[in-house]
């Protein structure tokens, strides 16, 4: 079996509000079925990302990683748009550089750059 990640769907309280947030991050809206659903494509790669309206939320359950080669510049640009980061770009011991923020519903987002270490870290099996 060969699996390829096609799409991730996350719960949000207000799909329309979340559309604005994810467009500000650079995702392109391709499906809008308000008030219940929206889907985006990333500017790089083939994966899609979608939102569905929900009132059921856990605590710290969803972590979403978006990779960007221009992490430092992207963080600065988002800060000028009012995005608040929990942590600014920092080299991690797992050899990824990461910045962390929350979406309007508290989902954990990590903007990062890993380069070759994304799939081929020195400790790869």
UniProtKB/TrEMBL annotation:
SUPFAM superfamilies: Glyoxalase/Bleomycin resistance protein/Dihydroxybiphenyl dioxygenase (SSF54593). It comes from the Bacteria. Keywords: Metal-binding. Residues 4-114 form the VOC domain. InterPro entries: Glyas_Bleomycin-R_OHBP_Dase, Glyas_Fos-R_dOase_dom, Glyoxalase_1_CS, VOC_core. The keyword Metal-binding applies. This is VOC family protein. It comes from Sphingobacterium corticis.
